[in-house]
């Protein structure tokens, strides 16, 4: 059996909820990115990183990369999985754009999953609220919006929560296969 660690960053709680749903189904340890130490995390066979989307970027991914000694290491049989939670709906177009903008070439073999979440203005920091206001204004006045921008424009007006436990099913199936692999 392979060991699994989930490292995560969650500012308004959506990613943490997905982490909790994953730990309901899989035996693994979890640690917040801010508390993770290089010496502790590289012993695991499978490392999962999860965080929310922030203006097109997966939060904390660069910091996480500095902690791990491998990206997808076929030699040592180690596996890296990355997931992101975001307000945007889970469409092929959006998921491949997130992947293209965030994953590096040496992470091409790492599996990526995207889970739709929502927006929580109640739990958002002051700085993020200001950023969202600027983003809303930008989208409102922009002409010739792309499909993604049109969807985002509607999605970010108010707080909402579209997270669902069933969204994790593909990740759980993938993990279950990896855990028993020799
Ligand atoms: C400042 C800001 C920027 C965001 N940018 C995006 C984005 O680019 N794409 C997206 O799908 N969601 C975006 N969101 C929504 C968050 O990604 C979503 O709420 C996420 O699940 C937050 O995760 P957390 O609560 O674990 O931090 C943004 C939210 C904030 C506050």
List the helices and strands and how they pair.
Elements: E1 4-9, H1 14-25, E2 29-32, H2 38-41, E3 46-54, E4 57-58, H3 61-67, E5 79-86, H4 92-102, E6 111-116, E7 118-119, H5 126-141, H6 147-155, E8 160-161, H7 169-180
Parallel strand pairs: 1-2, 1-3, 3-5, 5-6
Antiparallel strand pairs: 3-4, 7-8
Bound molecules: flavin mononucleotide.
Count the helices. How many?
A: 7
Give the helix/strand class.
alpha/beta
- What compounds are bound to the protein? flavin mononucleotide
Q: Taking all residues together, what is the mean pLDDT?
A: 91
Helix content: 25-40%
Largest sheet: 6 strands, mixed
Question: Could you tell me how far the N terminus lies from the C terminus, measured between alpha carbons in angstroms?
Answer: 8 Å
Query: What string gives the helices and strands in order?
Result: EHEHEEHEHEEHHEH
CATH topology: Rossmann fold
* Low-confidence residue ranges: none
Q: Radius of gyration, Cα only, in angstroms?
A: 17 Å
Based on DSSP secondary structure assignment, what is the total number of beta strands? Answer: 8
Beta content: 15-25%
Instruction: Please name the CATH architecture.
Output: 3-Layer(aba) Sandwich
Please report the first level of CATH classification, the CATH class.
Answer: Alpha Beta
How many independent structural domains?
A: 1
The CATH superfamily bears the name: Flavodoxin domain
Shape: elongated
């Amino acid at each position: 059996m392979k060991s699994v660690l989930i490292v995560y960053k969650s500012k308004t709680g959506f990613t943490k909820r997905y982490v909790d749903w994953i730990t309901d189904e899989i035996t693994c340890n979890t640690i917040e990115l801010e508390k993770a130490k290089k010496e502790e995390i590289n012993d695991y066979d499978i490392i999962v990183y999860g965080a929310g989307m922030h203006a097109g970027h997966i939060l904390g991914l660069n910091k996480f990369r500095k902690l791990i000694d491998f990206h997808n290491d076929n030699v040592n049989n180690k596996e890296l999985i990355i997931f992101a939670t975001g307000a945007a709906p889970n469409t092929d177009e959006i998921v491949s754009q997130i992947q293209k903008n965030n994953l590096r070439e040496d992470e091409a073999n790492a599996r990526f999953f995207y889970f739709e979440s929502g927006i929580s203005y109640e739990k958002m920091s002051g700085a993020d609220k200001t950023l969202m206001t600027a983003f809303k204004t930008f989208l409102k006045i922009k002409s010739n919006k792309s499909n993604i921008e049109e969807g985002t424009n509607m999605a970010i007006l108010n707080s909402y929560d579209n997270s669902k436990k069933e969204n994790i099913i593909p990740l759980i199936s993938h993990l279950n296969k990896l855990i028993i692999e020799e």
